[in-house]
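Progress against Task 2.4 (sequence-to-structure conversion) is shown through the following example record, which the project officer requested during the mid-term review.
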Amino acid sequence: MTGRPADERVRTVYLGSGSFGLPALRRLAAHPRINLVGVVTAPARPVGRHRVLTPTPVAALAAELGIACVLTPERLRAPEAVASVLALDPGLAVLADYGQIVPPALLDLPHGALNLHPSLLPRWRGASPIPATIAAGDPATAVTLMRMDAGLDTGPLVAQEPVALAGDEAAPALEERLAELAAGLLDRSLGPWLDGALPAVPQPPDGVILTRQLRREDGLLDPARTAAELERLVRAYQPWPSTYLELDGERLVVTAARVASAQPTDAPGRLVHEGDLPALATADGRLVLQAVTPPGKRPMSGADWLRGHRSR
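Structure tokens generated for the chain above:
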């Protein structure tokens, strides 16, 4: 605790929608230098077969924390949305996993707008840094706190914590791990930032890679690529867009895989046997299908699917 009176706490708004930002929201709500006056998140959306209207994870946590003001604009850049946020008289904005462009009026607050990003910026800017990190086989990543500017993840760096990778991470587990580390980084950095003791340093000009929103077709496992590349995609594209094969006009979703050596008779695109498991022959090696989900069925082991496939 800092011992500062409550009226010296900085009025702060938090912007986020996805689960990556949940630990940060908890830390922000409890921080002694912060007066969390509002949360901005996406509107509730219909979810599931029965189209149940469901709030974002951030909205659900805000309710749990007792945050009275939760704004859910469809478009943050709409004048009325900007006005509703500015009416809270914030001195600082903090953003994590929000998914909308922040208008200039919210970037120019007295203490600026800080963004938590799960990559080693400037590498992997944009919408899908965690899948991109895994798919590329990067040996390390980072969590980054930056001051936002008008560009897409181009703002100067405030703090960065490198994270070593083992090379077997799947996207959901890595996101959860990075979310906790990002929350800790924010918690440690807020005091020095508000005191003016933590400078924002321009990002290096080299090594910039921009990611985009993933599409369903990105998950198609192309046998013209190597088995190692495809195995990384299986881990990177969980839960969306998932990875899959097109077999006999049906889509077989692949949820776990490993790499095995090619055999002389392999032809890329052919489904072969690796012991009791199915495997896809690729340009270099075999992608062994350890767990799959056939269309209209529950997840199963590759061995169970292969037994059923043989009997058809």
